[in-house]
Amino acid sequence: MFSKGIFVFKVIIAVIILQTLFYKFSGAEESVALFTKLAGENEAYLRVGVGVLELIACILFFIPKTVWLGATMIVGLMAGAIFSHFTILGIPHNNDGGLLFGSACLSLVVALIVLYIERKNIPLIGKRFFL
Where do the TM regions start and end (predicted)? Predict the structure, then answer.
């Protein structure tokens, strides 16, 4: 049951995160504007750095032994994105009606669900989960 469900979750996250990588890596105007608000003149470093981390997380998310690590990275990245929306960017950004914020929230929830499903595969602590 969980294997089919977890695949659907992986596809949801892949669609959300991987489609944003094009904008980050190509230096799209919207992406540059967003990261300029966050990092000022160092936006390119943050934009590309976050993109690389998201790409690594998505790759790990699809490797059976590292699903938990990819999910953990996605949780951290999306928590940072949500925090940035709350503190600097605002919920709606660049007249998107909150779509970017909503995508980050959905990705966070899905990654948490996958992390919960994969909890027993986490090295060192996974065997201690009884639920």
Answer: 7-25, 45-63, 70-91, 97-117
Alpha helices in the chain (DSSP H): 2-26, 29-39, 43-61, 67-84, 99-117
Residue 1 pLDDT > 50, yes or no?
Answer: no
Torsions phi, psi for 92 (to 5 deg): -80, 130
Q: Residue 49: inside a domain, yes or no?
A: yes
Number of domains forming the structure of the chain: 1
| pTM metric for this prediction | 0.89
Query: What is the domain range of residue 114?
Result: 2-122
Residues sharing a CB contact under 8 Å with residue 129, sequence separation 6 or more, in sequence order:
119, 120, 122
